[in-house]
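Q: Hi! First time doing this. I have a protein sequence and I read that you can turn it into a structure. Is that right? Here it is:
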Amino acid sequence: MTPAARIISKLGGTRKAAAILGSPPTTVQSWKDAGFIPARRQGDVVQKAREAGVVIKPEDFFVLADAT
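A: Yes, that's right. Below is the predicted 3D structure, encoded as C-alpha cells:
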C-alpha cells in the first residue's frame, strides 16, 4: 500500500478524506493514484486529520525502509 493510500484509508476512504480535508474527491483520488500526497499539502492533512480525531504522523507520508 502506498503512503497516500494508507493515509486516505485512515481517513475513511476517498470521499470521507475529501470532506475532512475540504478538497474535491478528484484531488484526493489523484493523490491515491500517484501514491503520494504533495509536500505542500502534508501539514494541512496532519492538522485536519487531527481535528477529525485521526492520528496521521509525518512518517506516514513516506515508505520507510526495513531497519534490518
